[in-house]
Amino acid sequence: MSEFTVGDTDFLLDGRPVRLLSGALHYFRVHEEQWGHRLAMLRALGLNCVETYVPWNLHEPRPGGFRDVAALGRFLDAARAAGLWAIVRPGPYICAEWDNGGLPHWLAGHPRTSEARYLEQVGRWFARLLPEIVSRQIDRGGPVLMVQVENEYGSYGSDARYLERLADLLRAGGVTVPLCTSDGPEDHMLTGGSLPGVLATVNFGSHAREAFGALRRHRPAGPLMCMEFWCGWFDHWGEEHVVRDPADAVGGLREILECGASVNLYMAHGGTSFAGWAGANRGGEVQDGPFLPDVTSYDYDAPVDEYGRPTEKFWRMREVLAEYAGAPLPEPPAPPTALGVTTEARLTGWAHLEDVLEALGGPETVSAVPPTFEELDVDRGVVRYEVTVPGPRRPYPLTARGLRDRAVVYVDGEPAGVLTEHDDRLKEPVAGHARVELWVESLGRVGYGPRTGEAKGITGGLLHERQYLHGVRARGLRLDALDGVGAVSAVPFREPPGDGSPGLYRGTVTVAGAGDACLELSGWTRGFVWINGFGLGRYWSAGPQRSLYVPGPVVREGTNEIWVLEFEQAGAAPPVLGPVPGIGTRENPPACP
């Protein structure tokens, strides 16, 4: 048993100064069978601690319907076995480029404040979660050194009572290790996000001395720590792949260490937002601008890449961190086994989207106005809205107001176009009498800024000319309805049509020498993929991500089942399972992502 405390200038372990050299690794973005390898990579990088968020919405997809909360405890046990301490950031909000910042969709309309109903739900969640953390604190023989209160709250709100209540819940739940907060190094952020008596830390990607100077204006005493040193960045669909020059990142790390501060590399290993859990952002200075959905890969241009391999950034950072290690660093573990042979999938079955919805969708509703995804209990997935344009009447424009995020439209069963938030009117007018279907997909909920928690679906109504269309039929399909090896057994498959029609494609891919792989979907437009019932995430021809990472433990020797849910236009060529690419450079990034 040990005691970890916060001193006037240093962190103290059993009374002796210690510097935290931590790295972010999200257990929920790495296949559990690969946790040990990735944690060993952090040790080889020169780190002594691992940090992870906890996504509430992953573990409680429906109120009271908890799912594998014990995964956090297993991860913390794996960290201890790897010789690492741990920092846990349980939120309830986490950002993390994760859908809705980790907040459950069913909390829509309840902001991150001391509002009673919201705190009641947080308290219930913490009562289930905290035992996984409390029993693994360092004063009980576990690895957990610190627990964070909320996350970057100063970038969102200023409800001091809310932070106090969260700290009270953590303490009442048995957290005895030090608490901390983390915020950007700006006065309004530190004022709104810090809490008296709780260690304040800062998040930044450069200019460490200025950032710590801002922190010292608010907290003259206490250890300095950068809780998020952004050594890379994430990608949005339809934009360029983002990288940070290794020399620049290493220079930023060295400056932090020269300040005598502790650090948490964000990310040390990013992993993958499997199963459609990637979030989104809003552009503009106040995050109220264009909608920017995040890609499936969370490689983050991190020192350990998406496939668990050391990059140039890894080796350069290792050289710096070795100076602070106090002992020779362990060598990196052997790389994961990789698939050696490229294989085409054989797609033998296809089901129309209507048939998939009928077999796996939720109940149909009829209402005057379109219900939101949240009202239909859809966290990730698609909703079919159907409405009748009465007639006879002349052709008028049809508009989906407040559309979030993307709709494929059919008029009397024929494709009529694709609508988005900023292009929400069909190019061709619609005459009545007509049946209009809109298959609306969520591309990820915003996870940062004032638009966090915004509803998905058709949120402003369907207009024909200036008249609202009422009597809207709606039915949702949650992505998790397709999780698991037997999930599609109720779907009526037939032979693929051969014209690229949207729908659920089913087939097999035969593997000799199973291991880590990439799945290429050349010519396919947008959708999701499952291998052996494991959701790999979203693909989209908009790029920059061109293929999906397939963890080796998902692939089995011999025949593997593959499902592809395509929303717009399937490719002429089948999906291809192939080896992971070589490690990329700034000028030539790897093919996947």
From TrEMBL:
PANTHER family recorded: BETA-GALACTOSIDASE RELATED
SUPFAM superfamilies according to UniProt: (Trans)glycosidases, Galactose-binding domain-like
Annotated EC: 3.2.1.23
UniProt GO BP: carbohydrate metabolic process
UniProt catalytic activity: Hydrolysis of terminal non-reducing beta-D-galactose residues in beta-D-galactosides
PROSITE patterns according to UniProt: GLYCOSYL_HYDROL_F35 (PS01182)
GO molecular-function term, one example from the UniProt record: beta-galactosidase activity
Claim: Hydrolase is one of the keywords in the record: yes
Family recorded in the similarity comment: Belongs to the glycosyl hydrolase 35 family.
Record keywords, A-Z: Glycosidase, Hydrolase
Organism this protein belongs to: Streptomyces lincolnensis
Record's protein name: Beta-galactosidase
